[in-house]
């Protein structure tokens, strides 16, 4: 066999070798990093909360897994699970919207693109909403808006802090104006929550774009983001064509937004639960504890306690 024949044989055999490697990776035992290409034992990757131990790349997380990462075990109580999307506009593109919803529900096991509920985070009560990009790109339709709005209103009544983990491509075009109305509705609920002097923290994961960014994702008292997350409103090409200017590289990353004051902190997923618990603990309402009364003190008695404000007896 000549050297040229040998090379030709190797080229023919390469696809089969590559397919064999892909099958070995796809069997679920190992996961290949999308950023650095490193292979990690899947169980180790899950223990590390789907963060690559080699380069720190954050894999996309399903909503149920995110809840398990943040909420103390056996404390999660889902809210409004019965809310399901409908097709008020009878919208159809390549397939009817109602069929698209049904197919996505069967594929993901979700009712819509957000899960909401309450639970404890390091023993502290919390109202949590987690968006899931697998469900039609995490798009915000009427059900997503209603579930988040009800979550915030419940938190205001119970005086809970709110955390929403954002992952969305924006408003859901199949619901037209109805999806855009959710921006104002959620913003109004957040304003009532703020007036009650309660804490709201959005966590921006990859990607957070469109109407979500234009509303509740940027209305937090503290805005956290995951490393290298894409955060923006419109796409790069649309903005450049509108402004007729060349935009800097990485202008829609969490690092760029932190540098320019749009984000308060970038927190690795492995540190997120501890960071949220610390922030919630710091912002808990303070109720001063008065010292017990001394019944033997002649200035006090058990039936009545006298106070003075500005020298006036009460």
Outline the structure in words:
The model is unreliable at 300-314 (pLDDT under 50). The radius of gyration is 26 Å and the shape is globular. α5 runs parallel beside α6 (176-195). The longest helix is centred in the N-terminal third of the chain and has 24 residues, at 3-26. The chain has 314 residues and is α/β, with parallel strands linked by helices. It has a single domain, classed as 2-enoyl-CoA Hydratase, Chain A, domain 1 (Alpha-Beta Complex). The chain is built from ten helices and eleven strands. It has helices spanning 3-26, 42-47, 63-70, 97-108, 142-158, 176-195, 210-213, 236-243, 254-259, 269-282, and strands at residues 30-32, 39-41, 77-78, 114-121, 124-131, 162-168, 200-208, 224-225, 265-266, 308-309, 312-313. The chain starts with a helix and ends with a strand.
Summarize this entry quickly:
With 314 residues, the protein is α/β, with parallel strands linked by helices. 38% of the residues lie in helices and 15% in strands.
Fold topology:
Blueprint: H1 3-26, E1 30-32, E2 39-41, H2 42-47, H3 63-70, E3 77-78, H4 97-108, E4 114-121, E5 124-131, H5 142-158, E6 162-168, H6 176-195, E7 200-208, H7 210-213, E8 224-225, H8 236-243, H9 254-259, E9 265-266, H10 269-282, E10 308-309, E11 312-313
């Amino acid at each position: 066999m000549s050297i040229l024949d040998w090379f030709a044989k190797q080229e023919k055999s390469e696809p089969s070798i590559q397919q064999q490697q892909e099958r070995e990776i796809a069997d679920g035992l190992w996961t290949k990093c999308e950023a650095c290409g490193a292979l990690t034992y899947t169980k180790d990757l899950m223990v590390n909360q789907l963060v690559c131990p080699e380069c720190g790349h954050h894999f996309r997380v399903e909503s149920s897994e995110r809840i398990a990462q943040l909420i103390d075990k056996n404390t999660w109580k889902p809210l409004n699970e019965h809310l399901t999307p409908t097709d008020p506009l009878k919208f159809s593109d390549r397939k009817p919207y109602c069929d698209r919803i049904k197919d996505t529900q069967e594929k993901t096991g979700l009712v819509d693109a957000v899960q909401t509920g309450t639970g404890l985070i390091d023993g502290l009560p919390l109202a949590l909403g987690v968006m899931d990009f697998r469900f039609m790109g995490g798009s915000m339709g009427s059900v997503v808006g209603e579930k988040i709005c009800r979550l915030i209103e419940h938190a205001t009544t119970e005086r809970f802090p709110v955390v929403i983990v954002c992952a969305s491509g924006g408003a859901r075009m199949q619901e037209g104006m109805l999806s855009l109305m959710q921006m104002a509705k959620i913003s109004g609920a957040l304003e009532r929550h703020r007036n009650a002097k309660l804490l709201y923290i959005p966590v921006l994961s990859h990607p957070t774009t469109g109407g979500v960014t234009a509303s509740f994702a940027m209305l937090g008292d503290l805005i956290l983001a995951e490393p290298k997350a894409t955060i923006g409103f419109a796409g790069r090409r649309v903005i450049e064509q509108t402004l007729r200017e060349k935009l800097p590289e990485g202008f829609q990353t969490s690092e760029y937004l932190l540098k320019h004051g749009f984000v308060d902190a970038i927190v690795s997923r492995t540190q997120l639960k501890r960071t949220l618990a610390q922030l919630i603990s710091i912002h808990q309402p303070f109720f001063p504890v008065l010292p017990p009364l001394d019944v033997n003190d002649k200035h006090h008695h058990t039936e009545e306690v006298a106070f003075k404000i500005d020298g006036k007896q009460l």
